[in-house]
Specification:
There is one protein chain. By secondary structure, this protein is an alpha/beta fold. It folds into two domains: 166 residues, HUPs (Rossmann fold); 80 residues, 2-Layer Sandwich (Uridine Diphospho-n-acetylenolpyruvylglucosamine Reductase, domain 3), CATH 3.30.465.60. Helices cover 46% and strands 12% of the residues. The protein has twelve helices and ten strands. It has a six-stranded mixed sheet with strand order 3-2-1-4-6-5, with helices on both faces. The chain is elongated, with a radius of gyration of 22 Å. It starts with a helix and ends in a 14-residue tail after the last helix. 41% of the residues are buried.
Length: 348
């Protein structure tokens, strides 16, 4: 099993001999599998493991000691960060900000990739979470194997595959009991929703993954249509926008908003009809979610940032407001210039 898994990861090309990579290493089974593969494929001198000790669990010190011992055994450099827990705010979002920010700080000077241990099992949980919490087409696309600097070499394997690899290689790992708890949405999906779907159909997880792959391929086709509609770059004539089908109109305004925000500006597509209704004469503006503003001037539409990143009438985030459950992904992955990733488990 371990040889086959390694061969498939090598063939995928996300880890390559000699290419620098920062591995997000919690000490759990998935990240342990990933770290060992990175050392074997890229070579130990090219690998830096990053462990964040958030101090949130009684076992945190033991996790760090385990990571130090494993990295020493593999001959891999280890960087440990111990961020101070905030007094208020979304704890998981803060942890993601810290994790990806620290990874970017390590990776950028070296021109390195950042490798995360997300598996096919995580992919299913992510899609189901987004399906329940985000009414958009992007919710069903899941995670891509590569998003710019961020790579996910284990996406083709299940969580059970990763642990089987570790057992075959004689590698120990740490278990985070909070992953099985129902305090967070991820735990409820893992412990309740996925088993319920498998009782309905034993191939439920495989079918979710197959659907996501089909939709990602179709998303590439839709992206080409948006490119054609935005032949003028970062602006479009209102008359041209109105001539598009409603579906393409939504995609166009979402693309413009995302480019302005520097991240997915969730919810803008649902305002496409309001945007298209802006007047052809004079100047008019509409504040939108994600801290962006649509401005029509003499019939030409452009997007810009909302002044002070506030949009009282459009739903943009207000400083000090609590972020949504996966909102921290967008902030965290901006450090890597990546699209938003799901609310990942703390341990893996």
């Amino acid at each position: 099993m371990s040889d086959e898994l390694e061969a498939r990861v090598r063939a995928a090309g996300l880890l390559t001999p000699g290419r620098a990579v920062v591995v997000l290493y919690s000490g759990g089974g998935d990240s342990t599998c990933l770290l060992d593969l990175a050392a074997r494929i890229a070579g130990a001198p090219a690998v830096t493991a990053l462990h964040l000790n958030y101090g949130l669990r009684d076992a945190a010190a033991g996790d760090e000691r385990h990571c130090r011992a494993t990295c020493a055994a593999l001959g891999v450099a280890l960087a440990v960060r111990r961020p101070r827990r905030p007094a208020v705010g979304n704890l998981q979002a803060w942890a993601r900000d810290q994790r990806y920010g620290a990874a970017a700080a390590l990776a950028e000077p070296r021109g390195a990739d950042v490798a995360a241990g997300h598996t096919a099992t995580d992919q299913v949980e992510t899609i189901l979470y987004r399906l329940a919490s985000s009414p958009s087409r992007r919710a069903l696309l899941g995670m891509r194997p590569r998003d710019g600097r961020l790579v996910r070499p284990l996406l083709m394997f299940t969580r059970a595959d990763a642990r089987a690899y570790c057992r075959a290689r004689g590698l120990g790992w740490r278990e985070d009991e909070s992953n099985a708890a129902d305090a967070y949405a991820r735990g409820r999906i893992r412990g309740e929703l996925v088993p319920a779907l498998e009782r309905i159909h034993p191939a439920a997880q495989a079918n979710v993954l197959a659907l996501a792959e089909i939709l990602r391929e179709e998303a590439d086709v839709l992206s080409e249509l948006v490119d054609a509609a935005l032949a003028d770059g970062d602006a479009i004539e209102l008359a041209r926008l109105r001539s598009l089908t409603p579906a393409l109109r939504r995609l166009v305004v979402q693309r413009l908003a995302d480019a302005t925000a520097g991240r997915p500006a969730a919810g803008v597509a649902r305002r496409a009809e309001e945007i298209a209704a802006l007047p052809d004469s004079g100047t008019a503006a509409l504040d939108l979610p994600g801290g962006v503003r649509a401005t029509a001037r003499s019939g030409r539409l452009r997007f810009g940032r909302t002044p002070n990143d506030r949009a009282p009438h459009g739903g943009a985030p207000v400083p000090g407001a609590e972020a949504p459950a996966d909102g921290g992904n967008q902030r965290a992955e901006r450090a890597l210039n990546q699209p938003a990733e799901p609310a990942p488990k703390m341990q893996e």
